[in-house]
Every structure is written in C-alpha cells, then in structure tokens.
Amino acid sequence: MAGPPSSPLGGSDKDLTVYYDGSCPLCRAEIDHYRGCEGARRLDFVDVGRNPDAVLGEGLDRTCALRRFHVRDGAGTLVSGAAAFARLWRVLPGWRWLAGLVDLRVLGFRPVLPVAEAAYRLSLPLRPWLARLVGRWRRD
C-alpha cells in the first residue's frame, strides 16, 4: 500500500523530490535509469516538462526547473546542478560512492563540487544535441 502523497514543500514521506524535464529524451532516459535503481522508492519524481501544472514549491518556477536539474529534500531545501545530483546519488546505494566523492570535504572545503558544477554547466549547451541523439537511439 502506498504512503501519503509527497509534497514539494517538504514534509514528504519520500527522502527527495526530483524535478526533471520529461519532454527531453536525455532527461527521461536518465530518470528511467534512476527509477530502476535500488532505493528509488525513496524518491518522488516530478515531470515538469510534460506536466505544466506540476506543483514545484517555493523557490522554483517551471522555467528554472526546465533549465537545470533540481531536487528538494523532505525538509523543503531546494538544490540544483551538481549538488542536486550528489543529493540524488546519496539516496541510491549504488551511487553513494559518487555522492561521497562530490561531497568530499578537505579542511571544510569541498574541492570536487566546483569541478562537478563546472562540468555540469559545460554540459548544458550540449543537452539539446544529446537529447536528439538519445531520442533517435530510443526510437530504434
């Protein structure tokens, strides 16, 4: 039996709400992968791309949600970009090693996070091209 529905405003029965662009084949393929991972039952997935009326909660509008990857924890804290991926990976046992790497602290500083964020930002202009490529691949 399913628990109560989760809320993007915090207080969810899920550990994390994941906002994604379901109209993007690349994003959909990635989310489909995460949905199949151990621990995915602890995640609430919100398709912002194909559901324009999705409730996103404070601090997140549809335009921002479609431009960058965002997650919100059960307390309502919203995170985006590489830090959001690290939060997602921390919930999935098979990905925790990568979350630990991105969140690695050295003297109170997280040296890997800025590098991961730069890589994420550099990938954003490639997203439309990659989405078309994945879309063609998934149709075959």
Describe this entry's structure for a reader.
The chain has a four-stranded mixed β-sheet with strand order 2-1-3-4, with helices on one face. By secondary structure, it is an alpha+beta fold. Helix 1 (25-35) crosses helix 6. Helix 1 links the parallel strand 1 (16-20) and strand 2. The protein has six helices and four strands. It is 43% helix and 12% strand. The protein has helices at 25-35, 62-67, 81-91, 96-102, 112-123, 127-139; strands at residues 16-20, 43-47, 70-73, 78-80. The longest helix is centred in the last third of the chain and has 13 residues, at 127-139.
Sum this structure up briefly:
The chain has 6 helices and 4 strands; from the N terminus they run E-H-E-H-E-E-H-H-H-H.
Set down the secondary structure blueprint.
Elements: E1 16-20, H1 25-35, E2 43-47, H2 62-67, E3 70-73, E4 78-80, H3 81-91, H4 96-102, H5 112-123, H6 127-139
Parallel strand pairs: 1-2
Antiparallel strand pairs: 1-3, 3-4
